[in-house]
Amino acid sequence: MKEFIRFIFLFFILTLCINAQDNSDIPLLKGKYALQFAISNNFTLSSFQGGVFSGKYFFSDNSSIRLGVSVGSSTDEDETTQNSLSSQNNISITTEANTDEKVYFYGINLQYIYNLKTTKDILFYTGVGPFFRISNNEKESNGSRIPDSYSMNSTISRNQKQTSIGAELICGIEWFVKSNISISAEYGAAFSYSHAKIDETRFESDSNVSTTKSASSTRNTYLINASNINFGVSFYF
Known about the structure:
Elements: H1 2-18, E1 33-39, E2 45-47, E3 53-58, E4 63-85, E5 92-117, E6 122-146, E7 152-178, E8 181-206, E9 210-226, E10 230-236
Antiparallel strand pairs: 1-2, 1-3, 1-10, 3-4, 4-5, 5-6, 6-7, 7-8, 8-9, 8-10
């Protein structure tokens, strides 16, 4: 139901764009550049379209090209130690587990945007363009179980590489608070294809024997989804 409402909103905005009337009071934009930043929930500025850079160049007053580049990484470490005592033979058991996870992602968005002037300082715009994204998730889990006379160790290494390609349709409204500063609200819908390759290695050993198992799998995903409404600010120069 939520996705349906989002698509209705997208259709409504596009209808307004098509029926918008031209008005010459909007600042002339031909030859200008713009840097865009997102307005987050706590009213701070962050990257637009999830990237570290997003900029536009206007080759006419109504047409522009927007480029968004995203690069990021995250690291997560978790360690757990548990001590217990067996009620059957009064043996002390120590269980240790630690997990290290690293995620890297890269992406690029390229969009053609067309402006439709409406009022003195407000315009609607719509756009379309491709995107390409790569992500890599590396996760390693180590565990050990050590009673007084018996030990068991295990290591699980998992690597997932995913490549996504698709196209996004956007529309929004932009309000020029000054000739070189604007505030915008934008909404979009995207179609994407993703290919993921997953490699996993499992090593287990105890006091008597050790085993190693490896497995590989692939996953292909087709997805149509709608984005949240993004609020942003643009600086023109």
